[in-house]
Amino acid sequence: MPEVAEGIAHARRMGVDPEHGLSSPAAEESLARHGPNRLPAPRPRRAFAIFLDSLKDKTLLILMGAAVLSLGVEAVRAAFESGYSPHYVDGFAIFAAIGIASLVTTFNEVRASKKFGELSALRADVPVKVLRDGTVGKRSVHDVVVGDVTYFDAGDRLPADGVLLRGVEVAIDQSTLTGESEPVEKGGEDVELRGGTTVTAGSGAMIVTAVGAASEIGRLQLSLSQVEHEPTPLQERLGLLADRIGWFGLASAILTFCALAISSFVRNEIQLAPTMETIGALLQYALIAVTIVVVAVPEGLPLAVTISLAYSVQKMARAKNLVRKLASCETMGAATVICSDKTGTLTMNRMSVVGGWLGGKRFDAAPEMADLPPWVVERITEVVSVNSTAFIEIRDQTTNYVGNPTECALLAWVASWAKDWAAVRKSAAIVRQIGFTSERKRMSTLVEVEPPSAQDRGEEDRRDEERHRGDRNGRRLLVKGAPEAILDRTSSVLETDTDRVSPFSPTRRAEAMTMLEAFSGTGARTLALAYRTLEKDEVADAMVDPAAERLERDLVLIGLVAIADPLREDVREAVDASLRAGVEVKMVTGDNLLTARAIATQIGLIKEGDIVVDGPTFRAMSDEDVARDLGRLRVLARSVPSDKLRLVGLLKAARHVVAVTGDGTNDAPALASADVGFAMGLTGTEVAKEASDIVLLDDNFASIVDAILWGRSIFANIRKFLQFQLTVNVVAVSTAFLAAVLGFGIPLNTVQLLWVNLIMDTLAALALATEAPTRDLLDHRPHGRHEPLITSSMWIQILAMGSVMVAMLVVIMATDWVLAASVASNSRLTFVFNTFVMMQLFNELNARATRFDASAFRGLSQSPLFVLVVVVTLVAQVAIVQLGGAFFRTTPLSSSEWALSVAIGSLVLPVGAFVRALGRRFVVRRPIGDLSAQLGR
What we know:
Layout: H1 5-13, H2 24-34, H3 47-54, H4 58-80, H5 89-124, E1 127-132, E2 135-140, E3 149-153, E4 161-173, H6 175-178, E5 184-185, E6 192-193, E7 198-210, H7 216-222, H8 233-266, H9 276-296, H10 300-318, E8 321-323, H11 327-332, E9 337-340, E10 352-358, E11 361-363, H12 374-386, E12 391-395, E13 398-402, H13 405-415, H14 421-427, E14 429-434, E15 442-448, H15 454-463, H16 465-473, E16 475-481, H17 483-487, E17 490-495, E18 500-503, H18 506-521, E19 525-533, H19 536-544, E20 555-564, H20 571-580, E21 584-588, H21 593-602, E22 611-614, H22 615-620, H23 623-629, E23 633-637, H24 641-653, E24 658-662, H25 668-673, E25 676-680, H26 686-691, E26 694-696, H27 701-741, H28 750-768, H29 792-814, H30 828-846, H31 864-883, H32 885-888, H33 895-906, H34 908-922, H35 929-935
Parallel strand pairs: 9-21, 9-24, 17-20, 21-23, 22-23, 24-25, 25-26
Antiparallel strand pairs: 1-2, 1-3, 3-7, 4-5, 4-6, 4-7, 8-26, 10-11, 10-20, 12-13, 14-15, 15-16, 16-19, 17-18, 19-20
């Protein structure tokens, strides 16, 4: 790789050997002196600031006003009415309830913020190729120190500020720092590189001069304020839903206030005259009405989404899905198509040479050095070692492969011949290097070579005039790539039998194509190796032809190399799981048609009637023709990134929710265009990762299926929460209204209703929004992009269970036979309150089944937090009833009263099971009219 004089001189001034890098002790000293390579994290919001913000909630502000009004009226009555004993408990109780609700909200937000912070740190931890102690290996970007020599390729993001040491046609996108719209070429006098910028072309090495907060992007980061997270689409939908439900709650509160006032007037409990008694009673009714509004407004919905997302993205990271954009978690639950790469995603990305056709001779295993003439071995070693950017690192007696897996497989093959690939690469004088792209499908490196001695040249002249011409002229082009990209540019082929270079005749071409088909039919990837010696007049062309088209012609074909990449062990099961879940899988690969078809068949992707298309055919088809065959298209072979982008666009136009994988810089448009873009964490470029929504940390297709499962789980958990909360709303609002109309007074006081609100909002969000997914979620088709949040089965359960619970509570309030002698009259309201809460606790189990074919107990053993929240709520309820006294206006219940209350509450479980059984038998699953459309979206 050509050296940059200014960069080498800079390294010398820093006391660093560019060929060896820092030693481990020197790296530790640099770390102590300059600090770690970590950008300053935004300062997290303090808990107290979050607490104060929570008090700005409009619902809590209404409650504060009600509490102040309550305390004010009691103070006025105490001042003007002789002998009146003021009841300040209600006012202070409301303030206490506000404080508790705000504290719980603060705890949840701090917890969620911490989880998101941990994920942000994980997203920032990317591997970097670092030269240290004389060997190149991958290290965390956070381990890079001042003085380190790091290597980069096109698509990488530079880890820190530095100076270019070596480079081949390096171009950098500096728009994130300077706003420049065009990439800037580096080399010559412009050798300064900035961390956070992106390599758009070329490859090279740099020496690090500043890290962390001392780097330019670090100083910029320090000047930025904290960025707020934008609400996800589901949060926005739930916010609108909460507003609509709030209007229903407001109407119910007004009706309840009127019913209480009219009922009290009819019973002569208040007078039309504005006496203090009348004002106090009306104030009490107003407090109840305000509390009903508070209960009815599901302010816990956005909180439930936040908790669910925070929980899910952390679990997804453990499942090797690093979420970069929160909305993608929700979207994956609705995915209908996955466009997946093959290499590394469906296969293990552990490539090895398994055969070849070299010098006209076929090998059904990796060719050994003894099987080939020495000069062929020399050419293969040169092409593989020099025309490559991969490395083999041996550390602690462990061999690590760094770089492109195909190149690593070739290096391992050459290394098995006891050839020192590193020495060959180091000794090569590289003039130009034209990197591999998905459009070119080949890589070329132009090197200078020393002319051989006259004696050696004479010996070669006697063998073959063609083979030594480049040596005399001092230039040789080394090429490797896809066979179709090489064979059309080939004019000669090596012959091991005759030890000569002969014309690439039609017979030889047919033989090469036969070998290509044979290797591809087994699922192996086939690579062509070639070289070319340059004429004197072509040496100048080598420096001025940017596309290298004039150079990459009249090649001498060394042969074909077959490289196998075994399938992942669980890929067939993962593909089956996707298909069972109603998610189509389409393989988009750069491999040829035969290889792609063989792999697709092995993983069970191709069924009768499915079609396989290659890139040129796909590009020749009209959009209408492709759209007609989209349902049957399973494999797109020999594709380029523009093909993937077009396929994504056509699928979205057909109303599919599309997930797509990608690893290269040119995949960025398709990743950004898809509904969910998956970048490869192990082999993907930083450009691809930046364009993606989720990074697959293990590059495994099975992890995509896990993402589908978690996406569906988020949606399912929010539906559980909705079903539970709306059922509580129906029961609380209806019971209060009917009690007022029937003259039963106030069944639940203000403080008790606020406790109920805490149960159904914050605690229920913790219990239901954090449930782990169950595999049966993959037994159903994906929910639609615009499917209502509340389904017909949910509405039936909400209304049925709400009606049953309201009826039971009204019967308890209206008659004595239920209570019999078990409940004393002075504890009746406490009994009603306790039974109400018991019903909700048992109905929280019912809410876990939002479908008629689901069980309330399915997966309960996998939801320890749900069980814990229910137990904590039950313990708190016991304390409130037995010890609440004047604060909650409760009377301790006896053991028999508790038993009866729990027994009545538990009836909601068999009733819920009965409702679901009727639904399975009689109800057609479809949204219920306009109500579902208006409220459920």
